[in-house]
Amino acid sequence: MAKELAKAYNPSEVEDRTYEFWLKGGYFHAKCEKDKKPYTIVMPPPNITGQLHMGHALDNTLQDILIRYHRMSGFDTLWLPGTDHASIATEAKIVEAMKKEGLTKDDLGREKFLERAWDWKKQYGGRICEQLKKMGSSCDWDRERFTLDSGCNKAVNTVFEKLYNKGLIYRGERIINWCPHCLTSISDAEVEYEEQQGVSFLIIFFTHRNKYYYLRFSELKTYMDRVNEGHAKNFKYEELNPDFFIHAKNGALVHYLELLDKDLQLRA
User: Fold this and answer.
1) pLDDT grade, residue 141 (50/70/90)?
2) Torsional class of 38: left (φ above 0), alpha (ψ -120 to 50), beta (otherwise)
């Protein structure tokens, strides 16, 4: 008896059943066959802080095309899936959820907070993987990884230690983005930039030899503290006499720095 076709295509009747067939057959699993040329893609792990967006959909579609092409071309293919901890962003999400319960990190302590972090990973990391499966991504799910898995963690520490011992990386002082709320450094991608109208500060040093120096800065407090404390040596001019004060245009003796206007003239 002929089966009548549906008037409209219903993807839920086809896609889930087909994907389950692929998984049960192990068609995405890399068998590490030595007689075949390997082809591997490590999926850029999406953060567990939310859901997949259009960028993920495009990126993973392109990877899936390459993997399926090489798999059908006879390569021993591996598409390694995984998720990223995104620790600072994840912490912000967890803290936000805790506020609704009237709790803080100090209330819980380190161990209890980490338990919540792992629970968050299980909830949202799992959701992301289900979304990838819904897209039909032909990943080797038997090898799914998380960036804080013990194996990944050990590998990262080992590589960093080796690079450090070889002198290829080093620790040094750097200007960082400091978050006064989280009390930690954050990356450039996590900074919310805001343009502000800036000002310029001019320091006039008079020396005992009737010489003077102009030093102009955009940050006032640090240099004003040093000047008022008489730490002229910090400005790398040995002949500056810390007993002299800063002179404004009208000749008055002042203990603070005068702002400059747009013509760089000292205010009276």
Assistant:
1) very high
2) beta
